[in-house]
Every structure is written in structure tokens, then in C-alpha cells.
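Troubleshooting entry. The earlier prediction with 2-phosphoglycolic acid gave an output that would not parse, so I re-checked the input for stray whitespace and re-submitted. Clean input:
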Amino acid sequence: MNRKKVVVAVWKEKLTNNQSIQSAKKILELTKNNSFNFDVCLAPNPFSYVSVSEVVSGSPIKLCAQNVLWHPKSGSYIGEVTTEMLKEVGCNYVIVGHSERRIHFNESNEMIAAKAIAAIKSNICPIICVGDTNEDRAAGNFHNVIREQLEGLFEKLPENISENDLMIAYEPVWAISTWRNDNPLPAGDEIQDIHLHLREVISELKSGDFAKKLSILYGGSVAPENGEDYMSKPDIDGALVGGASKTPESFVSTVIACQKGFSRRELVF
Ligand code: PGA
């Protein structure tokens, strides 16, 4: 299945504006002789969207926002960034519903669906995160939590959306570098099984065809060491890379590992 694939550097609030500019420039330099058959994106902090967009403008590297307001135009939402602002800087993707926003900013499934809808209406592809916490996992509650997040999303999305309008990212909170404990990271085969489960749920909520064609990314300590294994799996269509994107060298090594994984699966499937 030739689904669209994406690898995103998720810088969160880790890099300042100057660091983001320097990092973006270095990533461009390090990748100038590579060609990727998937999108490589940078997700800087909101304060740096403009400067990073200026650096990547005219290059194959794309801009991804970390969050967006659900209201398409400005209203009374001090401090927020609208889809209109993102369009102006040529933003192609936006992450919505990241677990850190669900946990620290109390974002509900309803809010996340509204953000995704606002993005879709502006032709910005939302990468909508779902995932279970350590506690969910320990309580054996994984299936319910994922289903509830997906139901909350799909019941609000317009009937006529297409699988190309959005992407889902499975991000187990327990595997994200910031929240990790001593438990080992999941192997590619384990994530593959979980992604298949997500597709089954989405196929119930939308249709089998929609679920089959929808890109489902993975995020949680993706790094140069595991990117190839993860991306070689037939149902893992890309990665959100946090910790390993903090230096340009480590992000580019991760992207190259992911590229190897994607090409391995092309040979097999
Ligand atoms: P990580 O972060 O790669 O540091 O685990 C991923 C994310 O939070 O999206």
C-alpha cells in the first residue's frame, strides 16, 4: 500500500529561535545531496515558524506546526496561532492532540477534533496524536483508551473527509523519551500489531478502504538506532522524532534510518 510517508523533527520548546534557525540550516546542508520519497518536516516552537519557514522556503523540507487554534480566524483567543497565520508561512502540517497538550493543557477529544477540522479546512494536514499512558497500559486499558480517542475524533470529523486530508500518529506516552521509565522500547513488530489494531478501529468508524489508505505515523523515542526497524513495518508510515531531533546530525541520521526502513518494505511488499 503506497501511503504518504512523513518524518517530522518535533522540537517542542527545546530550541530557541536562533537555535531553530541554525538547526534548520544545518539540516538543509546535511541533506542537500539526498532525495527522499517522503516528506521531511521541521516542527519548531510557534515563535520560530516565520524564521524557520524562511530558511526552508524553496527547499524540499516542509514546515509542521506544533499546535493550532480551532477557530480559523482571529477571535478572542489571546496568545493563539490560527490556521490563517500558518497558511501565510507556507505550513503544510500541524500536530494536534499531542499527549503533552492533552496532559498539561487539558485538551479534550472535542477540542482536538475541532483543531483538526480547522486545519483540514485550510488545506493543512493535521497529524492527530493518540496514545496510552503508563497507567493505561498497566491497567490493561490500552484498547479502550485508543478507541475512545479515535471515536471522539471520527464522530466529529465531517462525513466527506478523505484519507488524504489527515494523518494519525500513534504515540504511546510510555515510550516518549521524556516520560520513559526503565521498560524497554517496543520492537517494530509490536508497533506494527498496534497500528493494525488502530486500522481495525478506524475501519469500523469510517470504512475499510479509508483505514487502509490512511497514513499512521509512530512517535516514541524514534532514533537512528530503531528508525529502520520501525519504518520497515508495512503499517508504520512515518515518525514523529522528538529527542533525536535535538541535534541536526542525529535528526538526519534518523531520517536516513527511516529511509532505509521504507525501502526495505518496498522490496518486500
Ligand atoms: P521522543 O518524542 O522522540 O522524544 O520520544 C516524540 C514526541 O513527543 O512526539
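This one parsed fine. The CA atoms of residues 11 and 44 lie 5 Å apart.
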